[in-house]
Specification:
Blueprint lengths: L4 H11 L6 H18 L11 H13 L4 H6 L3 H12 L7 H13 L4 H18 L2 H6 L1 H9 L11 H12 L5 H13 L3 E6 L6 H12 L2 E4 L9 H16 L9 H11 L6 E6 L23 E7 L16 E5 L6 H18 L4 H9 L4 H12 L3 H12 L14 H12 L8 H13 L3 E2 H8 L3 H10 L4 E6 L2 E6 L2 H8 L15 H18 L9
Parallel strand pairs: 1-4, 1-5, 2-3, 3-4
Antiparallel strand pairs: 6-8, 7-8
């Protein structure tokens, strides 16, 4: 068969939008693929045997929901030639020489090699499907090649430090169209600039940042105070490595950010912007009065920063620029109230209907004879348009923890949810004082810490510490480091709640916890650890 690549791309663009939410992609991807294939008069079940047919199928299956520059890249003659050679040799897999060609072409087009590798996987899968089972069995050369061939290691589209976070935040992402429309208009209107999304804790700023990384194929950095990733040095190191990897920058290992951006600007093709997403500026630890993270006062053309932060007083502004366009979008503004409520309702509706593991929520609603639209409206009101409230409350209902509560008895606001859980754990009683200290240690340490270290700091049995952490696991982030579990506070709003708890006062009274006491426990524990080291273990420090 012979279908012009331009016709394929036009068919994809006519049926499938370039940018939609990840939830819609997962739900409707196959539907769009079938529509495109039928529009090209192709069998949506069985790919043709010839190369053009397989490549067309691969372009459709991979290209749905992809941006124009991705689709155009795979129309490139050099790219098709590499795949055609592999197909003609019955090898399917591309040899190292051809991979080098693909890498060079991807670099010229500013395409992540990981995307080429993903397309290759789709191509190989379809090529196998195009051959009937008998031919696969009898094709000795193909069998032997597939046994010995090892694909180049797949590269992640996201930095390893933030891959899990981005995938988690984008998994159930929906709405926020008004935010992206504003930013898209900013990109069109200005040759460069800073665009800042402002909002209160739990309003979905990090989710917007994560979706922006996906949508704009952005370089990114997520400040996470609870994990101790929130300093200018850490930011620069991460951004520098991402830019070096993507644009193959030379002699840039020690460059500052302005120098890096200048080098990148020289490699950008006409009409191509670079978006750098930086989340949670309010969590940055940086003394002085200069720009947070030492963000440049000047930017080269076609360089854009998408920033997120909480609200602060105008006199506390830490972003000073020189003739660089700036724009802010405050999610708390009255004019966005309707849009925020619409997105919250969409999130609740998606949670109820789309995930099999959430069927417990449907059962909870049905048992109380509540109409879903009424449930959605009431929970949206209780949340006050706070996505973090929904992140906690909806899964709890789904797993059955609120069987004894009515819709009216569900907690009000995110703060109300924290307080309700605090009371359920009886954390205000004197015998729970040491348990509260364990949570305070997580806040005060400000980075992931092991169960063993918490036990050492608090003087508690390690098993008791683990038991308490498991009871509060929904509020914590658990991750592996050196084959050991480390814990940190999941969201800054919970750390703020702990710091402001009446029973965790800074004045030591009536058996309340003194934050200074927690600091002393941590300091004493560190001193003991230091003293226990042999002299030759730290004399070179």
């Amino acid at each position: 068969m012979n279908i012009d690549s331009i016709s394929v791309v036009n068919a994809i663009k006519a049926v499938a939008p370039a940018t939609v939410s990840l939830g819609i992609q997962q739900a409707q991807r196959n539907e769009y693929i079938i529509k495109v294939l039928k529009g090209l008069n192709l069998d949506p079940i069985q790919p043709p045997k010839d190369f053009e047919g397989v490549y067309t199928y691969a372009l459709v299956e991979y290209g749905v929901f992809q941006a124009d520059y991705i689709l155009n890249f795979f129309r490139n003659k050099e790219i098709k030639k590499a795949f055609a050679k592999a197909f003609a040799e019955n090898a399917l897999a591309i040899n190292n020489e051809e991979w080098n060609t693909l890498k060079d072409e991807a670099q010229k087009a500013k395409i992540d090699l990981a995307q080429v590798q993903e397309f290759h996987q789709v191509f190989v899968s379809l090529a196998k499907r195009s051959i009937n089972p008998g031919e696969v069995i009898t094709n000795v050369r193909l069998q032997e090649h597939l046994k010995t061939f090892v694909e180049p290691p797949k590269q992640s589209l996201y930095p390893n430090d933030f891959k899990a976070l981005i995938e988690e935040k984008t998994k159930a992402f929906c709405g926020r169209v008004f935010v992206f429309n504003k930013f898209d208009n900013f990109l069109k209107k200005h040759p460069k600039g800073y665009f800042t999304v402002i909002g209160d804790a739990g309003m979905g700023k990090s989710a917007i940042a994560a979706q922006s990384v996906y949508k704009y194929k952005a370089i990114c950095y997520f400040n996470i105070r609870a994990e101790g990733r929130n300093t200018p040095d850490q930011f620069l190191q991460s951004i520098r490595q991402q830019l070096i990897n993507r644009y193959q920058l030379q002699n840039a290992e020690n460059d500052n950010l302005p120098t890096l951006l200048t080098k990148v600007n020289e490699k950008l093709v006409v009409g191509e912007p670079l978006v750098i997403v930086v989340d949670a500026l309010d969590e940055v630890e940086q003394p002085g009065s200069g720009n947070l993270l030492d963000l440049p006062k000047n930017l080269p053309e076609r360089i854009y920063f998408l920033l997120t932060r909480r609200r602060y007083a105008q006199n506390e502004k830490r972003l000073l620029t020189e003739e660089v366009p700036e724009q802010q979008l405050d999610l708390t503004a009255n004019k966005y109230e309707v849009w925020n409520r619409k997105d919250v309702k969409e999130y609740i509706s998606t949670f109820i209907n789309d995930e099999p593991e959430h069927h417990g929520l449907k059962a909870w609603i049905q048992k109380r004879n509540i109409q879903p639209p009424y449930f959605i409206e009431q929970v949206a009101q209780k949340s006050e348009n706070n996505f973090m409230y929904l992140y906690y409350v909806l899964p709890i209902i789904a797993r059955g923890d609120y069987q004894n509560l009515s819709l009216e008895e569900l907690p009000e606001k995110l703060q109300g949810y924290y307080e309700q859980h605090w009371k359920q754990m009886k954390m205000d009683t004197p015998d729970k004082r040491t348990n509260a200290i364990i949570l305070c240690v997580l806040v005060e340490v400000g980075k992931p810490i092991s169960c063993e270290s918490i036990a050492r700091i608090t003087g508690r049995d390690e098993y008791d510490v683990l038991e308490l952490l498991n009871k509060w696991l929904e509020f914590l982030r658990k991750q592996k480091q050196n084959l050991e579990d480390y814990y940190s506070i999941y969201h800054q709003s919970f750390a703020d709640f702990l710091r402001n708890q009446p029973s965790l006062k800074r004045e030591k009274k009536n058996n309340n916890i003194d934050w200074q006491e927690v600091q002393h426990l941590i300091s004493d524990s560190n001193d003991q650890l230091w003293a226990s080291l042999k002299p030759d273990e730290y004399e070179d420090e």
